[in-house]
Design a protein that fits this description.
The complex is a heterodimer of chains A (about 400) and B (about 120). With about 400 residues, chain A is mostly helical. Helices cover about 80% and strands about 0% of the residues of chain A. Chain A contains 17 helices and no strands. The longest helix of chain A has about 45 residues, at about 65-110. The radius of gyration of chain A is 20 Å and the shape is globular. Chain A starts with a helix and ends in a 6-residue tail after the last helix. Chain B is about 85% helix and about 0% strand. Chain B has helices at about 5-30, 35-55, 60-85, 90-115. In chain B, α1 packs antiparallel against α2, α1 (about 5-30) runs parallel beside α3 and α2 (about 35-55) runs antiparallel to α3 (about 60-85). The radius of gyration of chain B is 14 Å and the shape is elongated. Classes of the chains: A mainly alpha (about 400), B mainly alpha (about 120). The interface of A and B includes residues 249, 251, 265 and 409 of A.
């Protein structure tokens, strides 16, 4: 029973931890602009992250080596270093967006001025990362993020057109004339589900928690597919709410306040407050993931001592790296840069950097000489190859689409 | 200012006005928090003000000049109304009195977008 409870808690935390500021921005924007048309893109991203999270969890469990250890081995030092630099830049931009997002949601909740709230957001992330154990972080932010289920309730209260929802599962242009903007949102929706920091954090967590092949590979599979899978359900709720409420009214959400408009209109004050608290905890949870991801990657690449379970004095370079990450992100947010725009840039550039993370991971996961009986089976290999093609297409098209569509504004 | 740009900007003015009208409607019924309402009106007001300033500094062709001027007026008015709502967050009567005008601005901007 205890084991079952542990598994259920892990899954719930994954669901709550799936949505970040990139999802809030891209998913709501996609629903407001294209109605139900792009649900399929969320599903593509959801299956993609589940496939690669399962692989990275399995590789980490079997070899006790997280993602960037593997990247260095497979790509060599030079190319691996390029991958590390690209990933670090994307993770830093993502952290900046998440941190600014926390301050923005706090502002909507309290009405206090934005800049002091950036300091509060920084203090919250710093305190959580320094003092709270993983189990508390997982419960507080993972379960708290589950309050986003308010959007699911709002979606159901809006009585969605189920026929249109089903039609959105199949890729089509509908009445769209802006094909480039359509493509931009497809790239954004898939990329925001497959942000590399998620696998850095997940695989490092597996090593930190000391998972064993004999007992935890099943848990890895269930967490990856059920946790990330159901997390995708929250994203779909966001899209349905936007498609049902914002799309017919011609509202293009440019701020997080507009994201919370539908829960307010449909569920009243309680819906608004629950949605905002869910957004706050989901985005704060993602901030902590990115803080650690930014320190895990270089520590694993250069062979430093690392780990959340080590005291800061036992892993000084690891600790210093994440402190520097928080400091840089705070300074950038304080300059007044809009976190919503930064989130869009982070998602698009993460698409560019994705192959450098996922290609070496896939190569190791399918290598029988390395993984033995735990290497990819036929299904994992087939999905891995399909997603490798998807990732390469995203990587090549993301920046041209960003420029050609003026960040989706036309 | 091209027809496409004018349509996009008019759509944006309509979007902001509709968004604000829904929030004002909720405020009228006492269904929103004062903090959310004030901050959201401020966000929308800044967007409307930025849009008005960009539109005001643009040079439309003769064919679009009248519509462009009208849109600038609407964007400026919208920005002003949003500032009033921001400053009187918690005042249900103010929200009740300004809500219909916000809806009207949205309709007028929509009409400009459609006829551009």
């Amino acid at each position: 029973v205890k084991k079952l409870l542990e598994i259920s808690m892990g899954i719930l935390a994954s669901i709550g931890g799936f949505v970040d500021i990139g999802d809030l921005v891209f998913v709501t924007g996609a629903g407001a602009l294209f109605g139900y048309q792009l649900i399929w893109a969320i599903l593509v991203g959801m299956v993609g992250i589940a496939v690669y999270a399962e692989m990275c969890g399995r590789v980490a469990t079997v070899t006790i080596r997280p993602v960037f250890d593997v990247v260095r081995e497979r790509l060599g030092f030079g190319v691996g270093l390029c991958g590390l630099i690209a990933s670090q830049l994307v993770t830093l931009i993502t952290l900046t967006a998440e941190l600014g997002g926390v301050a923005l949601v706090l502002e909507l909740l309290t009405g206090w001025p934005y800049r002091p709230l950036v300091a509060v957001a920084t203090a919250l992330i710093l305190f959580s990362a320094w003092f709270l154990p993983f189990s508390v972080i997982e419960k507080l932010f993972g379960f708290g993020g589950m309050l986003l289920i308010t959007f699911t309730v709002a979606a159901l209260r809006l009585h969605p057109h189920w026929h249109s929802v089903a039609a959105g599962l199949v890729p089509h242009f509908g009445h769209t004339t802006s094909y480039l903007i359509w493509a931009y949102f497809v790239v954004g929706l898939i990329s925001t589900s497959m942000m590399p920091y998620e696998v850095f954090f997940y695989s490092s967590g597996v090593v930190e928690e000391g998972w064993m092949p004999s007992s935890e590979l099943g848990l890895n599979k269930v967490t990856a597919f059920l946790g990330f899978g159901l997390g995708g359900g929250l994203s779909i709720s966001l899209l349905v709410v936007a498609a049902e409420f914002l799309f017919p009214r011609g509202i293009d959400p440019q701020s997080l306040g507009s994201v919370a408009l539908a829960p307010l209109a449909v569920l009243g004050e309680v819906g608004l407050v629950l949605a905002l608290i869910g957004m706050l905890l989901a985005v704060a949870g993602a901030s902590i993931d990115t803080v650690y991801a930014g320190a895990y990657a270089p520590a694993q690449f250069f062979g430093w001592r690392w780990g959340k379970y080590r005291k800061p004095s036992e892993a000084p370079r690891f600790t210093l790296t994440w402190l520097i990450f928080i400091a840089i992100a705070t300074v950038v947010v304080l300059t007044g840069a809009n976190p919503v725009n930064i989130a869009e840039i982070a998602v698009i550039f993460s698409a560019v950097a994705m192959p450098l993370t996922y290609v070496p991971l896939f190569l190791v996961a399918r290598d029988k000489g390395y993984m033995g009986t735990y290497a990819n089976g036929k299904l994992a290999n087939t999905l891995g190859w399909i997603y490798l093609v998807v990732i390469l297409v995203l990587s090549l098209t993301a920046v041209p689409l960003l420029i050609l569509t003026n960040m989706g504004q036309g | 200012v091209t027809t496409f740009r004018l349509q996009k900007d008019a759509g944006q003015v309509s979007s902001i006005a509709n968004d604000a009208a829904i929030a004002a409607h909720a405020a009228t019924k006492g269904q929103t928090t004062e903090a959310y309402f004030r901050v959201h009106m401020s966000e929308l007001g800044k967007e409307a003000g930025k849009l008005a300033s960009v539109l005001g500094s643009a040079h439309p062709s003769a064919r679009l000049a009248a519509k462009s001027r009208r849109l600038v007026q609407l964007a400026r008015e919208l920005s002003g109304e949003l500032e009033r709502l921001e400053n009187s967050a918690g005042d249900r009567d103010q929200a009740r009195s300004l809500g219909p005008r916000l809806e009207q601005i949205a309709r007028l901007a929509d009409a400009i977008a459609k006829n551009a």
